[in-house]
Write a structure and sequence with these properties.
The complex is a heterodimer of chains A (302) and B (315). With 302 residues, chain A is an all-alpha fold. Chain A has 14 helices and no strands. Chain B starts with a strand and ends with a helix.
Amino acid sequence: MVRKVASIVCLAFLAIGLAYVAFYLVASTQNADEMAWNPGWLPWITFPMLIIGAAATYVLWFPGCWHITLKELRTYFASPIAYAVMVAIFGISNLIFWWTLKGMMTQPGQNEIAMTTMTTCFLLVLITPLLTMRLIAEEKRSGTYEILVTRPIHDLQMVVGKFMGAMGVMLVIIAVTFLQPLMAELGGNPDWGPIWSAYVGLIGWTAAFVAIGVFASALTASQIAAAAIAWFMTIMMWLLSALRSVDPGKAISKLGEYMSPNAVMEEFARGTIDTTRLIYVASLTIFFLFAAWMTLFSGRSR
Amino acid sequence: MIEVEGLTKFYGPYPAIRDVSFRVEEGDVVAFLGPNGAGKTTTMRILTSYTAPTSGKASIAGFDVWDDSMNSRRHIGYLPETSPLYNDLTVRQHLTYGARLCGYPGDKVEGRVDDVIDLCNLTDRADALIHKLSKGYRQRVGLGMAIVHDPAVVILDEPTIGLDPKQVVETRRLIRELGKEHTVMLSTHILPEAQSIAQRVIIINEGSIVAEDTPDNLTAQIRRARSLRVRVKDTGSTVAAKLRDLAGVSGVRRTAEAGDGACYEVEMPVDGRDMRAEVASFIVGNNWGLLEMTPIEMTLEDVFLRLTTEEEGAA
């Protein structure tokens, strides 16, 4: 009974949150010319509702995926992987944050705090494969894949469950880097618009990187190979931004502008939440999860 | 409960199993007997939907393992050969994970896991991490994983491999226990194991089913086929011929073994009559100097040899 009520309430939360996001996107495009469109206090209620609603919906409506996610989280936090990755990210990104602050003191610029998220994003490119490489490859190598896929779990549930597990760890990492703008708030008056949008971009790209990592891990039984494949794909994408300067204004430059993580992150860090780019990042995520699913599926077809 | 019809699986150009068909009724304990590489694991992997057959059909509890694998997997508990487990979970977490993945009702999982821990004698290690467990405990956790969601069919791939004798006895007792509530199919290459656990034995060799019978019938067949190894001091050439003439002996073969005198393998009569005393007194009567007489236990390979040659003879 409690469970039934909770399942319905979480759907309502999710619906309200999504409705507000849609409204927000429409409203912000219509008010694009006015420099200061102020959404007021409403997002402080609707965004938490969206997050809680989404998380609860996942847990209550997709128990198969959720149990896999829970197990992955348990494994990550029971082993040194998660902590090693976190320490690496915090160490480096805080150092860069400190440099940025120092630079701002001597030469006040615009939205530099949001710009540090671009460095964080590059660190995520480097670190995500280390986190995702074990997801499926390790199971294949140790044989536990056999006790997993002989249970009534759909391959897609497995892919999504594992994706969300790695995503959970990444979200914890991102949440802790969020201490940087909070510290800036303590000591100054940062512009929060670009910071929020930069974090939206950061989470979106993390999802894409993790999806690529899951796909790479599904391809092979070797964790090293999985990491190498994921690095190849993500770093190549990152380097696409070099195309921007090849022939400005032409299609090839647009390719770099729209497809490479750092070019897209730059847009987000400037404070624009561009629907085109959001959809691009989301479709990358979905595409690679689908590819991972197909890889697993073809692995046991006739 | 398990129905297999004309199952064939090719790995590249090599057939792992060819045209395998059998049925297992509800409540049966069936042993799948064969040497390494006979196709036991492949058959089990097809039954558990881990791999797809090249051709043929298999169903568990009426659900096709390929077309309706979600349902067939729901009715299967599977212990793979090496009992792979997640090293960084505790026994309790591991079994809970297994039950949850099979959609076991959420509020009953805890009680069921406790029951399985009791049944598999894991009580003293329930909260230990898997990677700290010995091989015997790992095997029992694997068995627990196979039954934790209370499936109708339990499939165990070489459940006693790599265990010490005491653990083997323990595991066999546990499997017999499981046989009371579940349909059990296990694979093994150890004949006495099949004898002691199963009600029915399916013998598979080189990808094809060679024989299917109750253990009693099979052992009778094997006992019939037993032979004696005899060593006599006399190295003369007439010994073999004279032994062959002894009523009941179905064959004599001189073996090239080192040591004193000469060594012969004397095949016992087909009707299973015990001729040890007769052979001994015959040798003593002829004054050949009996040095040694040992009954030769048929090894599994001999059974295969016999069964395969017999089949060829019949065809």
